[in-house]
Design goal:
The chain is an alpha+beta fold. It has helices spanning 47-55, 60-72, 74-86, 99-108, 115-124, 129-142, and strands at residues 2-6, 13-17, 22-24, 31-33, 39-42, 145-146, 154-155. The protein folds into 2 domains: 2-86, no CATH class; 99-155. It is 44% helix and 15% strand. β1 (2-6) and β2 form a beta hairpin. The longest helix has 14 residues, at 129-142.
């Protein structure tokens, strides 16, 4: 199963497996998550999903189809979001350092390698999504980290 949702920044349709909530937008690079009414759940081999992903942004007929499906799945999406929010994470021991060094340390200790777990860890250190996004993009430019998938983050 996978989830398709629209980026709130550039309106590109993005895909993410149902086990994850956050990802980098494939078009603008913003850290995005999905919300009820803005996302649909698809089976892996669904033709509709591939059609939405191929066009990247929705024309009027596809938008009507997408949001009709999204309206019927509000409860399913809400339940998935609730499951994600109930996942707990322990406060890691991080030496006092700059924000970039703190994020790098959190990435090193992020066993799952998921963006979701990194964001939860950063929340414990009051590093908001906007700051984290800038730090990660800079680390990618510097070659310290890479994205094997848009919801996974690994050290180089």
């Amino acid at each position: 199963m996978r989830i398709l949702f629209r980026c709130s920044n550039c309106e590109t349709i993005n895909e993410i497996p149902d086990r994850y909530q956050h990802r980098f937008c494939r078009s603008c690079g913003k850290i995005e998550t999905y919300f009820p009414g803005e996302a649909i759940i698809c089976e892996k081999s669904s033709f509709n999903c591939d059609g939405f992903l191929e066009v990247k942004t929705l024309n009027s007929s596809l938008a009507e189809k997408f949001f009709t499906i999204a309206d019927t799945q509000i409860d399913l999406i809400s339940n998935l979001i609730e499951e994600h929010s109930q996942k707990r994470i322990e406060l890691p021991d991080v030496p006092s350092a700059s924000l970039t060094e703190t994020v790098l340390h959190l990435i090193r200790n992020n066993i799952s390698g998921t963006l979701d777990d990194l964001i939860k860890s950063c929340d414990l250190f009051d590093i908001n999504l906007k700051k984290l996004e800038k730090i990660i993009l800079q680390m990618i430019k510097e070659g310290l980290v890479y994205l094997p998938q848009n919801w996974l983050l690994s050290l180089t």
